Amino acid sequence: MENSPLFKPGHTACAGCGQAVAARLVIEAAGANTIIANSTGCLEVFTTKYPETAWGVPWIHSLFENSAAVASGVEAALIYLGKKDKINVIAQGGDGSTGDIGLQAISGMLERGHDILYVCYDNEAYMNTGVQRSGLTPFDTNTTTSPASGLSSGNLRPKKPVPEICAAHGIPYVATASAGFPQDLTRKVKKAISTKGPKYIQVHVPCPLGWRHESNQMLPVAKMAVETGLYPLFEYEFGVLSGRKQIAPKPVEEYLRMQGRFKHLLNNPGEIRKIQDIADSNIKKYNLKLEAQAPNA
Amino acid sequence: MKEFVEGSHAIAEVVKSCQPGVISAYPITPQTHIVEDLAQMVSSGELKSQFVNVESEHSAASVVLGASATGVRVYTATSSQGLFYMQEVVFNIAGMRLPVVMTCANRAISAPINIWNDQQDSISLRDSGWFQIYAEDNQEAVDFHLIAYRLAEDKRVMLPVMVCMDGFILTHGMETVDIPEQDKVNKFLPVYKPLYKLDPADPISLGLLADPDYYMETRFAIQETMRESISYLSEISKEFNNAFGRDYKDLLVEEYQVKDAEKVIVAMGSVCGTIKEVVDEQRAKGKKVGLLRIISYRPFPYARIYEALKDVPKVAVLDKAVSLGAYAPVAVEIKSAFFGKKKGPKVISSFVGGLGGRDITMETIHEVFRRLGAKEVNFDFVDLKPELLKEGTPC
Question: Is the CB of B55 less than 8 angstroms away from the CB of A73?
Fold first, then answer.
């Protein structure tokens, strides 16, 4: 891949950062006629430390929880100027800024029907501030504020279903994607950008530092999350499930074994069973299991 | 054109004449009539703005931030809790040097919840880097919005402006107001041309991370701009007078019978109307009293205040806010105007009144003048109700 004029090299992301890969894919899919409103978080910090910026498109960072509202203002201004048809507006942030502190602003943006794509880079914790749990931290994950100590197996709450919350708003397009499936992500961004109205894409992005895996393992880890059914890839249009990536499901233990944040579970079959149940329930709910190939007649 | 209207409606009319591209607000008493009127004007086609009905004040301020950054004139309005909810965005807007104009319909702060007027809300955001100008009546409230856009968008300034008007007293009060005509507004207020904006034709990044090597100079820059703006306010006031025939002098203070006064009350906002009535009454009886009305609270006009009050023996500052555990905000800044200087009042007494909308009557002002004597009152409330302060009163 050559250097991109829209997301330039030289930023200070960790080696192997899934979010850096995904953010670049997103802006390349959206193109140069895009304005980005970015929440506080890793992406904002590693791309815009004054006096440098990695962004080759107009870009604004305001606060932690308001990128959806800032983007709403950008979009309204473009409509007033008669320019909205030619310019894409993206609001983006991490799982914390999206599903926790920013959920209200997003809900408002969706409800008002702004022509904006919201992209959530889901690395499943508040990574920039030191791996604290968020509402999207999966069950049984070890984080600094949901530590797996003797008394606890980590985060005891299920992952907040933000894509479904967005789909419940009845918006034109909601999708989950993964840094492990870049072409699928690109396709989904292009589809979203070409759709009018509010759109939401949540991208699973491994964080080698927070998930405790080698920096050259980002792609295999991301793929395995999808292949176990723990991170289903699906699409909703106007509140109705319209597509999913089917898998030949692998046991969740293969995924857990790859990351230090789950290592406390490896000799705990009871907890692994609970996580397998989550995967199985996703597989059932989204009909993820690949049909057996029919033999040639 | 002169109209006998509710203050809120007059504000909506003048904002309409400024033709903001994006308006966003969240309802809170007593600002509601302003935004309702603007919504009506947009829906009827009189006003071609994008009106964004947001789900919170934090988002209202964020919407106007985003729209202003995209190069469009914007407007929002709020009060009290709403202003506090958007506080971090308010600081953000100033830090990003965006020329947002906001009406603050001054209202008391919870708890206890109270929807009536005092100035605790805007005064509590005095550190934000926004200009704050306080209107005495609805004519000023109207005029100050025009001045606000002219000031904010000046390329030497590029800072947001808060026009403060006392909630209910002004917003819901009916007065005869001269609503400036559109052609005159167009001459006074040019089309907004941003210094920088979000535009794919020339991509920039706004809101970068500034580490300790870079942050402090941005604060210095805003402080310097505010200092320089003291003279721009005079400039703009002259332009305004030429355009509309109303003279706000330096837009810093108003001296009402201060010249030879022995006692002067310092205050901001609509209470000054009441104070002027008392000054007139007392002057008619030969008492040498006066009022120094503060118009520009930020930037605080220290030099102008020194000049106005240096020969006045007794000064009482009447605050409609209090810094609990310490002092009355305006009083402290008045006192500091004289510290270390050769001249100044012998007595500067500090009174706090009108909190939570408690009416400041002419009798209150007479009482303040009475209590302004040889012995300085370091800090005291006026018009407290002793029956509510008895032990055992339920709260």
Answer: no
- Assign B345 a pLDDT band (cuts: 50, 70, 90): very high
- The beta-carbon neighbor of B205 closest among A59, A65, A68 is A59
Mutate to test the interface with B, among A8, A57, A60 (most CBs of B within 10 A): A60
Sorted by sequence, the CB contacts under 8 Å of residue B216 that are 6+ apart come out as: none
Instruction: Specify whether B220 is located in the same domain as B300.
Output: no
pLDDT band at A3 (very low <50, low <70, confident <90, very high): confident
Residue given tokens 């009127």 in the structure block:
B37
Instruction: Tell me the DSSP string of B288-315.
Output: -EEEEEE-EEES--HHHHHHHHTT-SEE
Interface test with A, best of B42, B64, B70 (most A CBs within 10 A): B70
User: A169: distance to nearest CA of chain B, Å?
Assistant: 15
A46: helix, strand or coil: helix
Query: Both B23 and B85 in a single domain?
Result: yes
ipTM: 0.97
The Cα A121–Cα A119 span in angstroms is 6
The length of chain B is 395
Give yes or no for A71 touching B (CB within 8 A): yes
> How many DSSP H helices and E strands does chain B contain?
13, 16
Distances, alpha carbon A81 to alpha carbons A85, B69, B154, B192, B291, in Å: 10, 13, 21, 12, 47
User: Is residue A35 within a helix (H) or strand (E), and if so which, with residue range?
Assistant: strand A34-38
The C-alpha atoms of residue B62 and residue B56 are separated, in whole angstroms, by 10
Q: Does residue A265 register a pLDDT over 50?
A: yes
Assess whether B137 and B20 both reside in one domain. yes
The CATH number of whichever domain residue A68 belongs to comes to 3.40.50.970
The DSSP call for residue A211 is H
- Contact flag A73-B204 (C-beta cutoff 8 Å): no
Q: Does A40 touch chain B (CB under 8 A)?
A: no
Domain range for B331 is: 253-388
Domains contained in chain B, number: 2
DSSP class of A99:
I
pLDDT of residue B395: 66
> What are the Cα distances from residue B6, in Å, to A81, B9, B135, B293?
32, 5, 15, 24
Examine the fold and report which residue of B198, B219, B244 is the final residue of a domain before the chain moves on: B244
Residue A129 sits at the chain B interface (C-beta within 8 Å):
no
Both B229 and B267 in one domain: the answer is no
Judging contacts by C-beta atoms under 8 Å, the chain A residues touching residue B198 are 35, 58-60, 74
Cβ separation B55–A108 shorter than 8 A: yes
Please indicate, yes or no, if residue A119 is contained in any of the structural domains.
Answer: yes
